[in-house]
Amino acid sequence: NAGVTQTPKFRVLKTGQSMTLLCAQDMNHEYMYWYRQDPGMGLRLIHYSVGEGTTAKGEVPDGYNVSRLKKQNFLLGLESAAPSQTSVYFCASNPFSNQPQHFGDGTRLSIL
Amino acid sequence: AQKVTQAQTEISVVEKEDVTLDCVYETRDTTYYLFWYKQPPSGELVFLIRRNSFDEQNEISGRYSWNFQKSTSSFNFTITASQVVDSAVYFCALSEARDSNSGYALNFGKGTSLLVTP
User: Fold this and answer.
1) Residue B97 pLDDT more than 70?
2) Which of B43, B50, B102 sits opposite A106 (nearest CB)?
3) Average pLDDT over every residue of A51-60
4) How many beta-carbon pairs under 8 angstroms link A with B?
5) Which of A61, B16, B51, B95 is most buried by a 10 A CB count?
6) CB-based contact (8 Å) between A3 and chain B?
7) In this structure, are residues A92 and A75 in contact, taking their beta carbons and an 8 Å threshold?
8) Is the torsion defined by CA of B77, B45, A58, A95 positive or negative?
9) Measured at the alpha carbon of residue A12, what is the angle toward residues A8 and A18, in degrees to the nearest 5?
10) Rounded distance, CA A93 to CA B113, Å?
């Protein structure tokens, strides 16, 4: 069972470059989320989606854009990467309400 | 404002000791959910437990137990007879019930790093 799959797992970027992180879930979940994890900060919500075609801002949305064109995919984009965006990014999904979220294995992103 | 506080940044115990990880939360909602997740050194996030605000019964699962007290806004996690494999970062998280358009994101604490040594 794949669950939540994130690609890539690692990436190094130069300041100013752009890239897209892909999250795919095969559980037919309605809700999807992007979090970032920084040392000593826990996980913080970047953006989320309550269904296909919808997106909304979370706690730390600046510098990121998202899209959910298909129910199973949630894309996180960095248009112009900055060193402050060096982090581990986690995607998660859940079917409805306050059910436990299923997390991907994370993407470790370094921006030089 | 931090909605979930895990005051213990790091804890170190010797194998077989009992250890309690503290979690204090803040919310104005009457309906909410509390979670614990484990993040082992390999980095993935593993769901441990979910508790809703109307269920204050303590729960035990093997060596793990959870104590939920609404009066003190706490949801503490105890590991009995700790083992080296319990070494991980543990996160407490809060989800507040909102309408379906608001999502049900998790507000995480900063985590407690537990090290169990032989």
Assistant:
1) no
2) B43
3) 92
4) 60
5) B95
6) no
7) no
8) negative
9) 80
10) 25
Taking only the tens place, the pLDDT of each residue in B32-84 is 999 999 999 999 999 999 999 998 888 889 999 999 999 999 999 999 999 99
* Subunit contact A33:B105, Cβ cutoff 8 A: yes
Query: Cβ–Cβ of A101/B33 closer than 8 Å?
Result: no
- Are residues A85 and A63 in contact, defined by beta-carbon separation less than 8 angstroms? yes
Q: Residue B45: which of A79, A72, A3, A11 has the closest Cα?
A: A3
Per-residue confidence at B30, pLDDT binned at 50, 70, 90?
confident
Question: Which residues of chain B make contact with A49, given a CB cutoff of 8 A?
Answer: 103
pLDDT in tens, A23-32: 999 999 999 9
In percent, how much of chain A has pLDDT > 70?
Answer: 98
Contact A67, A75 (CB under 8 A): yes
Each residue of A20-34: b (16+ CB within 10 Å) or e?
Answer: ebebbbeeebbbbbb
Question: Which chain B residue is nearest to residue A30, measuring alpha carbons?
Answer: B103
Between chains, do B43 and A88 touch, taking CB under 8 Å as contact?
Answer: yes
Residue whose tokens read 């437990």: B49
Asked if B44 and A105 come within 8 Å (Cβ–Cβ), the reply is yes
| A53-58 LR contacts (CB < 8 Å, sep 24+) | A56/B102, A56/B103, A58/A33, A58/A34, A58/B105
Q: Give the pLDDT score at B59.
A: 87
Block residue for tokens 């009995």:
B80
